[in-house]
Structures are given as C-alpha cells and as structure tokens.
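User: structure tokens for this one?
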Amino acid sequence: MTTALTPQPPTSTDVDAVPLLASTVMHVVMRVAGPVPTDVRPHALGHRERQVTARIGDAVLYLTEPAVAARIRQQWDAAHHLATTRLPQRVSQTWLGPAPGTYPVGVALRLTTPIEVTTHWMPGRGATNTPAHLRIRVDRLVWQVCDQQAWRRIADAWFTAQRYLAIA
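Assistant:
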C-alpha cells in the first residue's frame, strides 16, 4: 500500500524567524527641484547581459530592456509641453525640506516590462504644503517635478539610458 505524502509547511523552532514576505513597497514619492544629481552608467554593452544603472536624485534604477527605456523616455518627453508652459524655470529649495531624522533615504528599483508611465499636472495645495508640480509616475516611483531645471536634468538621464541600451 502506497501512502501519498502531503507536503507540510516547514517548521521552525526559531521564534524570530523572518516571514517570506513581511513588507512591500507600493509607491515611493520623490519631490525634485533644481539641478537634480544624475549619473548614468552602462555595463556589458553589446552583450546579452547589458544593463544601465541610472542614479536620479535619491533613486538608483536598473534597466536592461531597450523597450522599457524607450517607453520611459517617450513618456517623459511627452510631458515637455506641460514642463515648459506650467513649471517655473526654478523654484525655492524650501519645497524639498525633509523632516529632521528622515534623510537620507535611498531607493533602488529594477524597471522591467510591463511598465506603466503616467503624467499629471497637480495644482499646489497650501493646506498640505504641496507645490504645483508635474507628477510623473514610472512604475512604483513617483516624481513631483517642481521646476523646469529638474525636469530637464531627469529627461537628459532618461535619454542617456535609452541611448546606451540601444547599442546592439
């Protein structure tokens, strides 16, 4: 007689065992203004393992798919009209003031297909101390772009990332 074994969950005597999934990041919001620091570095170009690492403000982004980089750049460029007609050239850095003890925080995100990119104009709200801004969401990362200078710096980083990944 054969008895089928029913899989049992692993048991642990360790009381402090870490569950498989304890938390997940739903969205990260970054407010940017002025000369946002950017750095785009290619790795293994011309090989199947090619990758671009882009540091945009406090986010480190990993891209491996040319189509993803192209979509992000296309959508960022599509916001050009809003950026140049509604955003001021430069705003005060006071909009960026983090609360004491909360900075620096960094974000690392691998961007792969399918990717959703959306753009919205958001009017300022004095009650929440939120400036008027261009809200651009790339996957789980949301940028509140407060001025043209920040928009242009980030647009240039997306352009560079896409250009690197287009190299066969």
